[in-house]
Structure formats: structure tokens, C-alpha cells
Amino acid sequence: MAKQDKLYIIKIGGNVIDNSRNLHEFLKDFHDLEGFKILVHGGGKVATELGKDLGVEPKMIDGRRITDVETLRIVTMVYAGLINKNIVAQLQFRGCNAIGLTGADGNLIRAQKRPVKEIDYGFVGDLHETSVASHMLSKILEDGLIPVFSAITHDGEGQLLNTNADTIASAIAVAMSKHYETSLIYCFEKKGVLKDVDDDDSVVREIPSGDFEQLKSDGIVAGGMIPKLHNAFEAIKSGVSEVFIGKADELDQLSKQTFGTRLIN
Ligand SMILES: Nc1ncnc2c1ncn2[C@@H]1O[C@H](COP(=O)(O)OP(=O)(O)O)[C@@H](O)[C@H]1O
Ligand SMILES: CC(=O)N[C@@H](CCC(=O)OP(=O)(O)O)C(=O)O
Question: According to UniProt, where does the site described as Transition state stabilizer lie (predicted)?
């Protein structure tokens, strides 16, 4: 491991996972990416649908899922089981030696249950500076494996926790930036941060951190994009070399510098 070695942390969201054509296209580009790499996946959409089938209505506040005991069972099965193992099998098929992980495996990501204030989020885990075991994760990379993280962490006392996948990707990127030249790439179903969310040709190519508040108050960024940008700017301020947000099946454009939106400090 050397600081000049390049490491990509790539995150894919639920809308990409739910569309098998997009997912296959993405995994092909992910396979082609040179350098060390880590994949982090969400799957909120699949968990919501399965929960409804099982009679568990989803409750989201500020983009975070209220996770009671039943919901924790569902998200553990969906994220750490169904989605994670399918992605690992698809990557193995393409010759990537992927290893599927939760934060509990190898004690790689230890979270803290979110304290109850006005809202009780249940079994939701928050991350802090020392949450990610970066040395252990480096060893896994140096052994030639490609870690694939689901959105499940643990508290070290036997409790699994549900942690937002964008937050996991950002925390891994920050922790690993001590050891590698780290790029954090958020992949979703749109071409980047858009001026008009319904117009895929309105990509904002660069966003300085100072523009974030204005974009929010103008209503240009809303919903899930707000916590995503928050995580993205946290990463760029904390040692990550570059952060992009763009379309999952355009990842091959990263090397041509034509991929999505670049965030700058
Ligand atoms: N300006 C914007 N540009 C692109 N997407 C936006 C914007 N503002 C809000 N969004 C919404 O944010 C969503 C992405 O957030 P989220 O659903 O949390 O992502 P993910 O699929 O990665 O979990 C998009 O699907 C889109 O509906
Ligand atoms: C606490 C919390 O909200 N966890 C998220 C984890 C999955 C996720 O982040 O999925 P996407 O990236 O597809 O949205 C959730 O259960 O929805």
C-alpha cells in the first residue's frame, strides 16, 4: 500500500440495483476500472417493496429508514443477503474476486445506535471517525480481493444496525484516504446533479461546497440528493481526492473526465 496508489469507492443506489440491465452495465464498467476498488450498495427500494409484501409499511424521515425489529430483519435479509450475494456472484462471473461484507464481518465498520431525541430511529447506526477499520480493509485489498459492502453495520455488542449506504461510502473513503489516493463516486439513475430534475441534459458539471446552501434553498437539490451531497462534501473536506455523482451505466466516462457532477471544496 502506498499513498500514491489509487482507490475507488463506488456506491450504487436502490434504483440501479432494481433494474437488471442498468446493474449489468454498471458491473461491466466496474470490472473494467483499474486500481484498487470497493463497492458499496444500497437497496432501499427493494427493502421497501419486500417489506410491503410482508405487511411492514416503510417509515422514512429525512432519507433515513425508521428501523424497528421487523424492519431490521427485512433489511438484513435484503441488503446483506439477497442483493449482496447476487452482486458478488455477478462480479465473480466477470472475473472480479469480490467478497461480500457487512460492517460486522472482520469488525470492519462499527457504528453507534442513533441516540433517541425527538425521533426514535430504532436500529439505525451512525458512523464516527474511527468506525472503519482501514488497516484491515487495506489488507483485504492488498490480498487482491474486492470488498462489496451492504448497508448493515454492527455496534460491537452483538447488535446489527442499518446504516445509510451513502454515509458508509463516505466514511470508508475518508478512512482509506490516509492510505490511498481515494476517489468517491456516487452512482445513481440520473446523469448527475441536475438543474432541472426532469431534464437529464441539465447536468451541473461542478459544484463548489459554498453553493450547497443556495442550491437547497432554491429547491434545485431536494429529497435524497440533500444527504447525498452532504456526505459528498464531508468526504472532500476530509481528505478524499475527488468526489463525483453520476449515472451508473456511464461509469466508463470517468477516465474521460466527462462523468456526471464533480464536487469541489
Ligand atoms: N438536482 C437534482 N439532481 C438529481 N437528482 C435529484 C435532484 N434533486 C433531487 N434529486 C433526487 O434525488 C434522488 C437520488 O437520491 P436517492 O434516491 O437517495 O439516491 P440513491 O438511489 O443513490 O439511494 C434522485 O432519484 C432524484 O429524484
Ligand atoms: C438507515 C437507512 O436509511 N438505511 C438505508 C440503507 C439502504 C440504502 O441506503 O439504500 P439506497 O442507497 O438504495 O437508498 C435504508 O434502509 O434505506
Answer: 11, 228
168 CB within 6 A, ligand 2:
no
Q: Distance from the CA of 109 to the center of ligand 1, in angstroms?
A: 25
pTM above 0.80, yes or no: yes
Residue 49 is predicted with a pLDDT of 96
Say which CATH number the domain at 139 has. Answer: 3.40.1160.10
- Neighbouring C-beta atoms of residue 142, cutoff 10 Å: 12
- H-helix segments, 34-101: 44-53, 69-75, 84-93
Percent of the chain with pLDDT over 90: 94
**What is the domain extent for residue 81?**
6-264
Question: Could you tell me if residue 1 is inside a domain?
Answer: no
**HSE-up of 97 (CA within 13 Å, CB side)?**
7
pLDDT in tens, 166-188: 999 999 999 999 999 999 999 99
Instruction: Assess if residue 83 is contained within a domain.
Output: yes
The binding-site residues of ligand 1, defined as CB within 6 angstroms of any ligand atom, are 13-15, 42, 44, 63, 188, 190, 193-194, 197, 220-225, 228
